Amino acid sequence: MNTTILEANEIHKSYTKGVWPRRRRLEVLSGASLRVANGEIVGLVGENGSGKSTLMKVLVGDLQADDGSIDRAGSFGYCPQTPVLYERLTCDEHIDLFGAAHGLSVGEIERARRGAYDSLDFAHFADTWVQDLSGGTRSKLNLALAMLHDPDLLFLDEPYAGFDWDTYLKFWELTARRRDAGSGLLIISHFIVDEDRFDRIYDLIDGRIVER
Asked: What is the pTM of this model?
């Protein structure tokens, strides 16, 4: 029986725009709720500007919600839409750095490194600086770092942007393996083509979430 590892209830988030006397509040999330259980892939879909990335940042703790509650269980990994990488570090150096930050042993880092390179096929860029990588390879590294510590829950924000078709298929093989191993995954995107790859799909509409 699947156990809920993420539950968000009635999340509200607004931003203040402009300067006085024309300052106004823009409500982005107006009571958004969702849940993710272990062993499932959940999709969150919305148009550009609908608040998907804002919700994701609230869920991982990058932003403070104005109201609502979030309950997470276990460890989590976050793959942001824009890769957060260091231009003058290589792929190997990123893996070493993030692995140490997660408290992994040398052996665990090596196993995670081999798994990432094999799954996403970018071992030939191990010694390449990020500044010399293509956008697609940066996305591969971004995803690899999110999964490095084998988290119970994965937050993936537009994770396959920039992937070619072969890497796109590898991505789904990888996520299916993680689901089958008991991880929960939340994938957000402005469109979903392969609906059958998801266990459940939510739509973010006018600041609220509706399950399909």
From this structure: 0.91
Contact 201/43 with Cβ under 8 angstroms? yes
Same-domain pairing of 141 and 159: no
Query: Token pair of 40, please?
Result: 């499932």
Residue ending a domain, choose from 132, 151, 170: 151
Is residue 48 within 8 A of residue 127, CB to CB? The reply is no
Give dist(CA 158, CA 155) in Å, integer: 10
Pairing of strands 200-205, 76-79: unpaired
Please check the confidence at residue 194 and state whether its pLDDT lies above 70: yes
Q: pLDDT confidence of 163, banded at 50, 70, 90? A: very high
**CATH number where 19 lies:** 3.40.50.300
100 is in which domain, residue-wise? Answer: 82-151
Residue 19 has pLDDT above 80, yes or no: no
